[in-house]
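Hey, sorry to bother you again with one of my protein questions. I've been staring at a protein lately and its backbone has me curious. I owe you a coffee for this, so here goes:
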Amino acid sequence: MDHIKRRAFLGMAGACAGAAWAHGRRAGASRSLAPGDDHRGPAVIASGNGRPATSRAYQMIMDGHDPVDAVVAGVNTVESDPNDMSVGYGGLPNEDGVVQLDASVMHGPTHKAGAVAAIENIKNPASVALLVLKRTDHVLIVGEGAKRFALAHGFKEENLLTDRAREAWLRWKYNANPNDDWLDYDQMDFQIQQEGAAREIPYTYGTINCSGVNEAGDLASVTTTSGLSYKIPGRVGDSPIVGAGMFCDNAVGAAGATGRGEAVIQNCGAFSVVREMENGLSPTEACLKVMKRIADRTKQKRLLNERGEPNFNVVLYALRKDGAYGSAVMRGDRSFAVTTSEGTRLEKCMPLFE
């Protein structure tokens, strides 16, 4: 679908939605915009950094595990990888050089959720969020309380700032202000030995979302993150907020988000995607419609480019109860991870803006 036709479709999408449920599944109102819209049966999807997560979660689902345990175990593989700077161990720190992690998880059959935010020194925040879901009457525990909760349940306290992430933070700190007392590399009298690529300052929104559905149509979803690189300490994005960075409704589907968390929070991103699927849109259609809503409601001039479009990126992911799935990106060539009976692969996100 070209840019003009996609924009025209999005303008009509609300008028096209309205078919009734049949045996718990939406009948007939949606159109297939991508191959995932036509898929049926068990599936696990995730953000592009989540291929190991979808593979592990899908195998656990097929082995009979509850989808909520499967998707959390899936993202644990990425959280524990020191070479992945987007989540968990090895994630990029805040402006003080401290790794603060957030996560949320939701179980479709019970409609229960658990989340932690600004937790420090605990490698797998998604697993802590799952314990909040399973063992408490709360939804969200934050900061020092979240760490104490994790330690009480046997989690190990450890330094999550790897040497690679620490060096990245120091490069950011050197270059943050040309008038401070930290010397930029080109100001140093004694040059530090570095590899060429090491001079670059990595930057990430730092998130993985993963959703899964089994043969019975039971769903679960999880989002975990190290958050915005070099953020103000205590900043919390959309990932641990149920309805923003992650949402699951066992009667409809699950959704999640990565990218600029503030924009997702302000538009209830994941919840809105699920509601659009309930209104009859396919997963890809639902992601595109909510993406357009985010774009239309971005009003601050500093967040707009010369065409009046958002100058940031967001990716939305959707998995329907019957196994249909899809994703949309604000702009650019982005992919998301999928595992079905056909194996694990990356598929293209549908862009709102070319």
In short: The longest helix spans residues 3-16. The chain has two domains: 3-161+203-345, 164-199. Residues 275 and 344 are 28 Å apart (CA to CA).
